[in-house]
Amino acid sequence: MKHLFDSRRLAIVALAAILGSCQWLGGAAAQSTGNHRAKAVETVPGMPAVADPENLYSEIGPTHLSPAVADDLYRIYVPNRISGDVTVIDPMLMKVVARFRVGVNPQHIVPSYDLRTLWVVNNAENRSTGSVVPINPRTGKPGHPIAVDDPYNMYFTPDGQSAIVVAEESQRLDFRDPHTMELQWSLPTPGCAGINHADFSIDGRYALFTCEYGGGLAKVDMVHRQVVGYLTLNKDGVTKQSQASLLVPASATSSALADPATGFPICAGTGMPQDIRVSPDGKVFYVADMLADGVYLVDGDSFSQIGFIPTGRGAHGLYPSRDGTKLYVANRGSHKVEGGRHGPGSVSVIDFSTRAVIANWPIPGGGSPDMGNVTADGHYLWLSGRFDNVVYRFDTTDGAVVQIPVDREPHGLTVWPQPGRYSLGHTGNLR
């Protein structure tokens, strides 16, 4: 059968050195040697083992659905930023089956580390009334809101001990209890204007966060709990880095771009990086850039830019295929944060092995594909239509697209349930 779901429930199927140049050199990931299988990955304590060092997405295939999601409803949950509510779609019926209010400016719906809760993050832009709202995926019903400052996005540490609330406006990462959301500790990121999306190294030792309004990335050492570098991304391929030691801000040279209040470096570029995903072998991070109209390639260990792949106007969201061979790139169709309707939106498909675009799926009549994810069987890619007040369902075999109207300005929708052992956050970064 093509699909694995009925309309009600899912059937279970079987940092060592810091450079003085906005850079850090970490431990090498597992390497392939000739015809031999890649060495086992030594992960951080508490992180589940990497089942296949050559494909960290090996556990998100259709046959890897966790017993934890056995009784969860098959639904598409869509946060609508302007209308302040969540639209719930039954993908079998292809229609809206519920709506409920959640908070001010809901941005993303984030599966919890243990797969038992879907968190709606409401960052209440320019206000102090941010909150997160839990959704029970077995019933599709929301719980009571929990006050949380500036939650634009949310991730989880690879050991599952902390939720990482991305406080974009405050340029800060707040580490919180993953169940109660009680604050554990905070990490300022003064050189990362507009910090928002992230992904983790294959061993869990570091994460790269995008700096939407700074044109670059921040590297966070997850073991020692510190920012260890910033990197500016450039479409021309020229690496530009501030010349300062992050641990000793006063050592910033006169040529550094630095915050005059803190002395910390600011890597100021002209791009607008958005979503980020690591390659199956863990060696390269793919970074969508809305102004560059494509995807940067970044070596995470050496923290250096190594390539660029043009995709389409307003490259924004990144989602791996269920078999880990392809990367779907949502091109939002606009260079503006507040874009217009019916833009030249599309989805590009990148082959991970060749790093080449092998398909491009335009939206008939135009559109604004933004954030979402792939269904458990891999047959469909669901994306929000940010400026068109719709969601799109792309057929991953040929790019055919169907639209469903929702409320005002849909953003980080999630498809649920998804295969995998645990969630690292966002709209479903499972491993």
How would you characterize this protein structure?
By secondary structure, the chain is an all-beta fold. The protein has one domain (17-26, 37-416): YVTN repeat-like/Quinoprotein amine dehydrogenase (Methylamine Dehydrogenase, Chain H). The protein has strands spanning 17-18, 24-25, 75-80, 85-90, 95-101, 106-111, 118-122, 131-136, 141-142, 146-147, 153-156, 163-167, 172-176, 183-188, 195-200, 206-211, 216-221, 226-232, 273-278, 284-289, 294-299, 304-310, 315-320, 326-331, 346-351, 356-362, 369-374, 380-385, 390-395, 401-405, 414-416. It is globular. The two termini are 25 Å apart.
What labels would you give this structure?
431 residues, mainly beta, Methylamine Dehydrogenase, Chain H, four-stranded antiparallel sheet, disordered N terminus
